[in-house]
Every structure is written in C-alpha cells, then in structure tokens.
Amino acid sequence: MDLSLSTRTVGDRTVVEVGGEIDVYTAPKLREQLVELVNDGNHHLVVDMERVDFLDSTGLGVLVGGLKRVRAQEGSLRLVCNQERILKIFRITGLTKVFPIHDSVDEAIAATD
C-alpha cells in the first residue's frame, strides 16, 4: 500500500492528513513533507493519522524528527489517532509521553498545551 498526504491550514495550524502505511518505504515521503512545511514557516502541525493502516519504527522516527524540527522553531506537533492498534505502538514505545495525542482534528486544533 502507498502513502497519501494532504495538507490544509486551520487558523495558525497546518493539518497533515496521512493515509495508508508509514513504513521504511513511505516514511521518506512524510519526512519530506514535514521538512518542507517547517521550512516554509509552518511551525504548528497537526498530523492526522486516522487513516493510517500501519506504522513501523521508521515512521515513528520521522514523527520524532518532525517534533524536534518544530520545537527548534518554538512550534508544536500534535497527533490525531484513535485506532487502538496504532495507539498501542505509541504506548509500548513510551511516545505517549512525548506526543500530545488527540481523538480528533478539532480537539488537536483547540488544544493549548
């Protein structure tokens, strides 16, 4: 399966909608998108993972890299994920302590933490 990416702006947030699989083959595409957004001045990102079917360690690495990149610009990166099998990966790796994870895009946009 491939990776689909689209972006939209909501207020001062940029929402990155991700679908498909984030793995060793597709993660570079996501990394490219995140780097480009930050370089273009988008420092408050919401990564919508509601349509993600699979996430591996390479994908986690890209998300952590994106978080470091926005934090260097005093920005934020929030995740939207409500699928138990994907949430489990974040819990097992301890990344629930690193990423703010929300149930919906609206909730992530409204969050001020």
Automatic annotation (TrEMBL):
CDD domains: STAS_anti-anti-sigma_factors (cd07043). Residues 3-112 form the STAS domain. It comes from the Bacteria. It holds the Pfam family STAS. Belongs to the anti-sigma-factor antagonist family. This is Anti-sigma factor antagonist. It comes from Streptomyces sodiiphilus. The lineage of its organism: Bacteria, Bacillati, Actinomycetota, Actinomycetes, Kitasatosporales.
